[in-house]
Amino acid sequence: MAIDKVAYWKELADYDIDAAEVMYHGGKWLYVGFMCHQAIEKSLKSHWCAIKPDDIPYMHNLMKLVQSTGLATKMSDTQLKLLADLMPLNIECRYPSYKDELAKKLTKDFCKELINRTKELKLWIESKH
Question: Pick the residue with more confidence: 1 or 25?
């Protein structure tokens, strides 16, 4: 039986946004950011599978993924800004030199807004395939 790759990546994205909510309620701000990045990355990979026959390249760069899927030209400045905000939250939040700097930005209020913006973008990406 062949795996439905679109559904596979969407399910992972759904799981990640739920995990961001759990991290929020637990006060784990760095992980809220990380999981929001993951949710958008996996939403973009789901979209990739819906529109392209070739395999998804191994990458975590949201800007490259959105450009490769053709969605960049359809996104608003606000959506593109969210991608830029999420980019450093994937890798950099795991390293001590960046972690302290990011922790200053990732407050409770900022993280709640980040989750809401991520949910909106995730739904928008899903609507495009």
Answer: 25
88 and 102 in contact (C-beta within 8 Å)?
yes
Beta strand residue intervals within the chain, DSSP E: none
Residue type for position 39: A
CA distance linking residue 40 with residue 14, whole number of Å: 10
Residues 6 or more apart whose CB falls under 8 angstroms from that of 12 comprise 38, 42
- CA 21 – CA 118 distance, rounded (Å): 11
Nearest to 21 by CA among 10, 32, 8: 32
Q: pTM for the full model?
A: 0.91
Tell me the angle at which helices 77-86 and 108-127 cross, rounded to the nearest 10 degrees. Answer: 120
Report d(CA 27, CA 49) in Å as an integer: 34
State residue 37 phi and psi, 5-degree precision: -60, -45
In whole angstroms, give the CA distance from residue 58 to residue 49: 13
Q: Could you report the per-residue pLDDT of 5-51, keeping only the tens digit for each?
A: 999 999 999 999 999 999 999 999 989 999 999 999 999 999 999 99
